[in-house]
Amino acid sequence: MVKDKEQGQNILALRWGGLGDLLIVLPALRLIKHLLKRSRITLIARSSYGDLLKGALIVDEVISLEDSSVSYLFQNKPEIKGKWLEAFDLVVSWLNKPQVEWADRMKRSLSQKFVAIIADKREFPLTRHFFEATAKFLGKEAPSQ
Hints:
Blueprint lengths: L9 E5 L4 H6 L1 H10 L4 E6 L1 H9 L5 E4 L3 H4 L18 E7 L3 H11 L3 E6 L6 H12 L8
Parallel strand pairs: 1-2, 1-4, 2-3, 4-5
């Protein structure tokens, strides 16, 4: 699913919630940026939050959650469609348990392109869980603390 790290990939990253929720996945985003150096990461988030990560060179582009072009991603429909999604080689989202239904719809719609990294409330700290699960998905072992 993940191309050779020498090849560039166009990656869409999603994380629901506020600034704190986005900061929890910051180490995972940095890991992707570090391991897949030639890849381009587009983040869907509140624009003010995403712009912080863009300014820090962690993501390359931000699509605002408030943008009408992405609002359908979060509607309760059986299938998620969007021509612009086809431009991405990989769509990755870090989720909490209650969002599993949404992840299932994304997986049905995007098939091999979609990866959901899901945390159970027992998996604390969440930052560490998301980092380790992202490393595993990328075929790497997370460094120990």
